[in-house]
Write a sequence for this structure.
């Protein structure tokens, strides 16, 4: 592509008078992207998350060994080396392969929690904020009840009731992580609900349902995306915590938290067994945090319309 | 009216950096001010407020102010230190903004704010400061100064708040007052009361006043001279009394396009903006 | 001609504050009626009470023969539309002009959307080039034109105007006032217009009501006001204030 076409494409995207719906939308996205990409650390965060996605997608290709079947006879607790980059664990499994496959489980947990918790929070928060009165009071008191317990303790209680396993861990984390989203969505709703543009839609004869869904929710989504991204690290840690306590992923699943738990027993002599998954959790959490910070700058509705 | 020159502005420029490059909000404004009332009129984006802020030294830090000359009473405002600038501000040059709600400190009583202003600029005892603050509140025709002295800004009406703001600004006895849309947030009847007070104080104290507004008719009825701004430039300077004979089509258009009681014109004449006005 | 909008003994109370204290008025079909007053006079509250945005505690509102209850149905909003004061606050920040204009059509299930949007944009003097812009890509006057287009797209017979030009520059104000007069003539609309500016009201309206502290001060025709034939001191004060500053 020559410099000229790039230049004209940029002008097309930044045009003050878009000629189609698509151009308007792309232009908006481009402005957000420019703001996002101006933040170096956010780009680093995004690269980490992209790397996580790639690793998860191509785990079969990237992992040299099976994540679940080890060589008990010859390869127990080997230190990092050429054959096993991150060493092996007590069952002779290659830790590098386990971490690569573990990326899938980490993504699985994070995405499922986000898909379950964020819409619940959004719905509860916007409805409470827009309806006000009794609806608001009831919904917010329920939210408060959930917020009153420490997250991990509540998740523990749920998993204990539902039975251990990674699906139940996801469910438990989702159940405990929606209340903050509801709070954010409600606060955001309260600031826009009395604005003239919402009144104008009311005067069109729109139903409350339509107003919440089509006019209020889109305004709450960017703050919510930011918050969810920032929470991803927390979700990973909670999942790891549950895994560590034996209530999340069950052996032999290569879930990072569970891997740390099993490495705990020989942490002093064979440090790499726990350190490698620990580092993986650290890096991915950091990635999500950096990404979230960048998104906040790029999407924050308070930072002006452009 | 205009005796010695109080303020001299020559080729004032204010430039803002934006994503798409530099934007000049003020593009070479020149005028001088004696002890008189000068109106700066323009529509939004004409650079009138940025002109006032640049004189006051309140331009946002990312913007750049330059001028061939920007002198207050012989002091070159662009070469003195920020510290000296601060000492001038509030003491010898004062500014009133549009909405008292945002320019008064909400958690401090009105009286204390006036006293603080006075005591930052002059060495006076607390008792004397209070005395002078009360006198100042009286001067802006607040009926019960002692009561208003102990009120918080949110406890008074808009007109009262703006009077308190004027009192606070005038208590140090400034020589130059910049009023940026001082009455636009007020009801019409209150607006005139506030203007009357401002007019009287300016006349009594022999101050120079720069009155920035979008309302050409109001400015022309209040000021001695009017500077009309368009797109960051001065398009016309004219005596308020001769406004009817304004030459520039923009000035004439602005005067014409407002509905007036007793002058039926349907449709209203509209401004036909010419690109060369901004050139 | 018969009364098109009738308001009788209207009371509005917000948290014990009586914003309207028994106000009555009659607007005829095709008429342009003005409400003048300073802040707190209840003039905007009156408009909002008609649209159902302010809680009515007593009194009745009748529009085109139908007495309004607590809620308004969709048919009401096809008859009555409103233009808000602040063009910077009345357009959704995340929607294009196209989306804004489509919304009322979608709500009312109107089929010929494309045509109506193009016609509405033409009518307010914006044209197709503005269709896919966001509010932040428009000037104040353009925003207010979009707001007018949005109000007109349902083809109402009554337009409620809440200080439609007070946030605009004088030259833009003239353009918007001219536009409003033009659409009124073309579509034979009934206007109920609120302003603090007597000159605008006398320019736009045939009859007007002066309000103060939630009550009606007096009802006048525009020519009575122009001829200074007013009976209340308050109105006289307002008239004097609109002349500008007079040095004693």
């Amino acid at each position: 592509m020559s410099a000229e076409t790039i230049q004209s494409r940029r002008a097309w995207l930044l045009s003050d008078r878009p000629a189609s719906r698509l151009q308007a939308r792309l232009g908006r996205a481009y402005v957000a992207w420019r703001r996002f990409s101006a933040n170096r650390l956010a780009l680093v965060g995004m690269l980490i998350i992209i790397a996580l996605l790639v690793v998860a997608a191509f785990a079969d290709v990237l992992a040299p060994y099976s994540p679940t079947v080890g060589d008990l006879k010859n390869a127990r607790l080997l230190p990092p080396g050429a054959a096993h980059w991150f060493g092996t664990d007590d069952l002779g499994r290659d830790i590098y392969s386990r971490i690569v496959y573990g990326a899938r489980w980490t993504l699985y947990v994070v995405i499922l929690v986000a898909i379950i918790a964020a819409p619940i929070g959004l719905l509860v928060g916007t409805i409470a904020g827009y309806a006000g009165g009794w609806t608001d009071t009831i919904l917010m008191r329920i939210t408060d009840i959930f917020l009153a317990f420490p997250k991990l303790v509540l998740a523990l209680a749920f998993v204990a009731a539902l039975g251990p396993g990674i699906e139940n861990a996801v469910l438990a984390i989702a159940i405990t992580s929606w209340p903050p989203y509801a709070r954010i969505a409600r606060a955001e709703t309260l600031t826009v609900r009395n604005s003239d543009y919402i009144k104008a839609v009311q005067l069109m004869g729109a139903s409350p349902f339509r107003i919440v869904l089509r006019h209020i929710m889109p305004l709450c989504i960017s703050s919510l995306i930011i918050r969810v991204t920032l929470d991803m690290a927390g979700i990973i840690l909670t999942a790891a915590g549950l895994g560590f306590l034996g209530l999340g992923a069950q052996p032999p699943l290569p879930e990072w938290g569970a891997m740390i738990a099993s490495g705990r027993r020989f942490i002093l002599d064979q440090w790499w067994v726990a350190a490698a998954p620990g580092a993986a959790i650290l890096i991915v959490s950091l990635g999500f945090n950096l990404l979230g910070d960048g998104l906040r700058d790029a999407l924050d509705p308070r930072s002006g319309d452009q | 009216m205009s005796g010695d020159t109080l303020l001299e502005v020559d080729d004032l420029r204010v430039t803002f950096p934006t994503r798409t490059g530099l934007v000049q909000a003020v593009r070479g404004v020149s005028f001088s001010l004696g002890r008189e009332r000068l109106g700066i009129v323009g529509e939004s984006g004409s650079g009138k407020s940025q002109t006032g802020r640049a004189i006051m030294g309140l331009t946002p830090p990312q913007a750049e102010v330059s001028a061939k000359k920007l002198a207050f009473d012989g002091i070159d405002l662009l070469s003195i230190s920020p510290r000296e600038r601060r000492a001038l501000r509030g003491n010898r040059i004062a500014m009133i903004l549009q909405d008292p709600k945002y320019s008064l400190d909400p958690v401090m009583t009105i009286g204390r704010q006036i006293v603080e202003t006075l005591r930052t600029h002059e060495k006076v005892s607390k008792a004397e400061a209070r005395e002078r603050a009360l006198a100042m509140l009286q001067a802006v025709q607040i009926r019960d100064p002692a009561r208003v002295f102990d009120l918080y800004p949110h406890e008074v009406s808009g007109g009262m708040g703006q009077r308190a703001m004027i009192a606070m600004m005038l208590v140090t006895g400034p020589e130059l007052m910049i009023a940026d849309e001082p009455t636009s947030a007020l009801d019409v009847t209150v607006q005139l009361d506030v203007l009357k007070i401002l007019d009287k104080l300016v006349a009594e104290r022999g101050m120079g006043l720069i009155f920035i507004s979008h309302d050409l008719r109001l400015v022309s009825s209040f000021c001695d001279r009017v500077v009309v701004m368009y797109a960051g430039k001065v398009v016309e300077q004219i005596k308020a009394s001769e406004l009817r004979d304004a030459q520039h089509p923009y000035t004439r258009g602005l005067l014409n396009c407002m509905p007036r009681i007793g002058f039926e014109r349907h449709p209203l004449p509209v401004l036909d903006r010419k690109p060369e006005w901004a050139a | 001609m018969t009364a098109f909008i009738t308001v009788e003994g209207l009371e509005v109370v917000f948290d014990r504050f009586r914003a309207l204290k028994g106000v009555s008025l009659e607007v005829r079909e095709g008429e342009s009626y003005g409400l003048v007053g300073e802040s707190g006079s209840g003039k905007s509250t009156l408009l909002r009470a008609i649209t159902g945005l302010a809680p009515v505690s007593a009194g009745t509102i009748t529009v085109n023969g139908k007495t309004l209850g607590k809620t308004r149905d969709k048919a009401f909003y096809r008859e009555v539309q409103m233009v808000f004061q602040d063009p910077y606050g009345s357009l959704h920040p995340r929607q294009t002009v196209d989306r804004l204009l489509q919304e009322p059509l979608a709500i009312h299930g109107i089929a010929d959307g494309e045509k109506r949007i193009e016609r509405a944009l033409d009518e307010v003097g914006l044209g197709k080039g503005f269709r896919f812009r966001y509010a932040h890509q428009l000037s104040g006057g353009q925003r207010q034109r979009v707001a007018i287009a949005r109000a007109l797209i349902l083809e109402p017979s009554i337009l409620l105007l809440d200080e439609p030009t007070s946030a605009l520059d004088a030259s833009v104000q003239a353009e918007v006032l001219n536009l409003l007069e033009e659409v009124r003539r073309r579509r034979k609309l009934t206007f109920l217009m609120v302003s603090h500016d007597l000159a605008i009201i006398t320019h736009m309206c045939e009859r007007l009501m002066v309000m103060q502290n939630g009550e009606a001060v007096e009802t006048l025709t525009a020519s009575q006001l122009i001829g200074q034939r007013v009976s209340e001191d308050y109105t006289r004060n307002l008239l004097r204030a609109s002349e500008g500053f007079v040095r004693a």
